[in-house]
Amino acid sequence: MTDRAPILADASRIVAHDEPNPYEAVVPPIVQTSLFTFASYREMEETYLGQKARPTYSRGLNPTVRVFEEKLAALEGAEDALGFASGMAAISSTVLTFVKPGDRIVCVRHVYPDAYRLFETVLKRLQVEVAYVDGQDLAAVAAALPGAMLFYMESPTSWVMDVHDVAALAGLARKNGAISVIDNSWASPIFQQPLMLGCDLVVHSASKYLGGHSDVVAGVVAGSSALIGQIRSSTLPYLGGKMSPFDAWLLTRGLRTLPLRMQAHQDAALAIARRLAAHPAVESVQHPALAGALPQGLSGTSGLFSFIFRDGIDVPAFIDALSVFSLGVSWGGHESLAVPGRVVRAQNAGPNSAIAFGIHDNSVRLHVGLEGIDLLWRDLEAAIAAASPGSAAQ
Ligand SMILES: *Cc1c(COP(=O)(O)O)cnc(C)c1O
């Protein structure tokens, strides 16, 4: 429980009114500008020579984006953070900062599908070799790491929710001289602070819980000043996927309620997951808290998990019978969502089949939103009844 003190201390910082603010407004302004002008030749020269730090152009530094970056860095216990136009922009810029042709990276299996596709397309074209390992098998990770430039992980992993011992994996990466990068979108810094567990860099799809209202696509990376400085100077300006001021403003608004929302997602998803686990139509539930004790460093669980129906349940009929849960990808907002595993498997047949590997034909992924446990459970129960053998709808 000693882990929780810094989290709560940092959580207080995301609601504090400590942003630069010329009008004493309770909300920091949106500095919606592409460029910033200089008062004199001398000021311009000092800025360009790096003697004076001030914004020049919003692809590099924007005050509204900086407010969000500083808050996120505080939440993750990082020295610095950088905001991006999407989670994938954060992931691609981060990885491309540290690899060159001939390098090798090690990646845990079952990661976010577009991260996998980035590795399989762009990295392969750059002659970067990628080895996929079961992140729960420490011996396999230890065997794959020697010589790797970078170790990429996610815990829990997308869809099948493999939970990892992040501290042990980060320790193995460090021992082998590999930079460790973890996608922390699922737990958010409220429930997991990977840098405190020894990871080097933490990335987020800010489109998920950090924003929390399904109205932003954005990303962020946090870590030491040295590593973030490398990303800031070597890929961010040229790949150019910088976060916009308005998105940063929405994200800062989202952060104000992050601890409360994460608690509510946790409570509702756990209650629903337990009821599903006890339902006769359900074969199994893939939720980190139902798989045994949470690993050290994961102090809570979020709203996203999967479950597998027993044979005989009509999955398309179940999906179409839902009325509170909407059918859609992404997650992390107020709304509850369902995705059928079969569609993901069909989409990823063939060369991308490693993405579908592990996704059961009868599985459904749920994001449990903030509509209320009983309403959501009634929706699921009715939809299961409509999809069960012998139902009038069959
Ligand atoms: C959505 C998601 C991403 C990608 O983020 P975008 O903001 O959509 O680019 C990365 N990792 C995980 C785990 C995600 O769920």
TrEMBL record:
This protein's record includes keyword Protease: no
CDD domains on file: CGS_like (cd00614)
SUPFAM superfamilies reported for this sequence: PLP-dependent transferases (SSF53383)
Cofactor section: pyridoxal 5'-phosphate
Keyword Signal carried by entry: no
Residues recorded as bearing N6-(pyridoxal phosphate)lysine in the entry: 208
Cellular component, GO annotation: cytoplasm
GO biological process: transsulfuration
Pfam families reported for this sequence: Cys_Met_Meta_PP
UniProt keyword terms in alphabetical order: Pyridoxal phosphate, Transferase
Gene3D superfamilies xref list: Aspartate Aminotransferase, domain 1 (3.90.1150.10), Type I PLP-dependent aspartate aminotransferase-like (Major domain) (3.40.640.10)
UniProt similarity note: Belongs to the trans-sulfuration enzymes family.
Protein name per its UniProtKB record: PLP-dependent transferase
Superkingdom field: Bacteria
Matching InterPro entries: Cys/Met-Metab_PyrdxlP-dep_enz, PyrdxlP-dep_Trfase, PyrdxlP-dep_Trfase_major, PyrdxlP-dep_Trfase_small
Species assigned in the record: Jiella flava
Entry GO MF terms: carbon-sulfur lyase activity; pyridoxal phosphate binding; transferase activity
